Amino acid sequence: MRIRYFLYCLLLASPLVAQPPLSAIDWLSKENSKFQRSILEVKNVDVEKANEINVSTLNPNEYQAVGLLPIYVTGIPTTIWRNSSFDDLEYSFKTMPTFTYSPIQELVYALLLAEARPPLDEPSRYAFLEIRLNKLLNYGAIDPAVALIERASPVPEEMIPLLFDISLLSSNNLPICDSVFQNTRNRDLQAELIYCYARKGDWLTAHLILKTEEVLGELTAHEVSLLDRYLEVDFNVDMNAFLPPPELVTPLEYRLYEAIGEPIPAEYLPIQFSQSDLTGENGWRAQVIAAERLSLTGAIPENQILGIYTNHSPGVSGGIWARVKAVNDLDAALDNNEDFEEYFQEAWKVFKQTDQLTVFAKLFGLRVFDKNLSQKSKKIAADLLLLTNNFRITGDYWNSNDIRFGLTTGDFSKVKVSNETEKIILQIFTEPIMPFLVEQKLNQGKLGEVILNALLQFEMGIEGNLKDLSESLSTLNLIGLETTARRAALTHLVLGK
To answer: Average pLDDT, stretch 167-188?
Structure first.
């Protein structure tokens, strides 16, 4: 049985084993091609230029693998969802949380962005793609969502409203108006059509459509009020009247409030609105808050976070400014080859009390570890690297009887455990057992479900359910995701309560 699954997993996931995996967001942020640059380099992106997004036309008569990450990057087969129930997958993705630990969240992005075919019982074309897109929005990963939906070109008419909303949520705020203009008869796009004509500079046409739709009753009173103020061509409208925001703000309403000079702070809205604050146009504080919110879901590259942290020098202290100051001081000391250990230890104290410690680890762990350090600083740097893809370089630091040595080197021969959690981790990587239900689902060709269930189990496991912890890590290890399993175990050893 063990040999059978080893061969099975080797076939599916050999690219993962061949080299340390990149997180989805990290991979997308590389500057290897126009396509990659178009996804996350916000200031330069133009989502209206199809030739910069590598659009490929799909054959509606065939089951096509839609995604941004090819199999040679992820090791994920295109058939990962084929044999699963659409309804089951829809429920799983809708209820999926933001995972506490970075390695697990990174794997989720890989699943969402991997080239993959829809389940066989997909009720309509691109219905499964829409599920993936909505999950990306829930994580605030707007620009990858834009690129992913563009891969479905030509975009089906029923998905144009979603595409429009996604484009408005991006930090560059470039609405996808061409598709709206091509579907002027779509009664669900009239507010969008008005907005697009105004953006085009055709204010009279926009006003004519607005008044027509107002008479027809196709727009809500709130939409009419917002658009009237935005167009500023109806002299019967009191521009000074207070216009309260709705309970549920749409992307278009968010941009309209912004345009009329009554912006709604993104920090009080769902995380998908945070991308708009990354430009810094709403102030440095809003930019920092947005970056930290997005860092928790893994929707922003670490180098962008560092750039935002160090954009200015904080004039106040406490709260987010303590973290900003700590990063500024440490970054400057490292750049200037100054004595940085005091700043490093202070930054560690600041960040370890927050949910931003993994971000701090990715920013500074590697920069600090190879330097001449005191014993205390060396231990901190080693722990930080355990939270990153660079965990292997700490192998020589740990004693051979430490579970961390086994996880970083793969050699568990001399490891001695000191508690139940370490005992479970040791067993996972020396004598793993495939859970019966996992074996059943694999025999049914439901690899995607197996991974999703393992991730949910792991989240319960880190809350204290050791059976779930054991089964989740065993599953990930046995299906070819050993690196993710090792990173997740290491992260738990560092961050676990």
So the answer is: 81
What is the reported pTM? 0.84
Weakest-pLDDT range from 44-58, 107-121, 275-289: 44-58
Tokens representing 454 are 């393992």
Per the prediction, the chain carries an average pLDDT of 84
Q: How far apart are CA 348 and CA 336, in angstroms?
A: 20
Strand-pair partners of 69: 114
- 55 burial class (0-12, 13-18, 19+ CB within 10 angstroms)? middle
Question: pLDDT > 70: what percent of the chain?
Answer: 85
Question: Hunting for tokens 């057992």 — which residue is that?
Answer: 433
Q: Is the peptide bond before 144 cis (omega within 30 degrees of 0)?
A: no
pLDDT tens track for 368-390: 999 999 999 999 999 999 999 99
Q: Which two tokens stand for residue 139?
A: 């994580």
Task: Give the residue among 221, 278, 230, 233 at the shortest CA–CA distance from 255.
Answer: 230
> Average pLDDT, stretch 227-245?
73
Q: Which residue has the tokens 């920013």?
A: 363
pLDDT of 463 above 80: yes
Q: Are 447 and 479 in contact (CB under 8 A)?
A: yes
Confirm if 299 and 140 have CB atoms less than 8 A apart: yes
- The answer to whether residues 13 and 96 touch, using CB atoms and an 8 Å cutoff, is no
Per-residue pLDDT tens over the stretch 246-293: 788 999 999 999 998 888 899 999 999 999 899 888 899 999 999 999
Rounded CA separation 4/289 (Å):
49
The answer to whether 166 and 146 are in contact (CB under 8 A) is yes
The full length of the chain comes to 497
> 460-464: which pairs have CB atoms within 8 A and are 24 or more residues apart?
462/100, 462/101, 462/492, 462/496
Rounded alpha-carbon distances, angstroms, from residue 59 to 63, 155, 161, 371: 8, 12, 22, 55
For the chain, the structural domain boundaries read 2-173, 187-264, 403-495
- Rounded distance between C-alpha atoms, residue 52 and residue 36, angstroms: 9
Task: For the beta carbon of residue 72, count every other beta carbon within 10 angstroms.
Answer: 9
Taking alpha carbons only, the member of 124, 94, 126, 93 closest to residue 111 is 93
Pairwise CA distance, residues 293 & 270, whole Å? 10
Q: How confident is the model at residue 17 (pLDDT cuts 50, 70, 90)?
A: very low
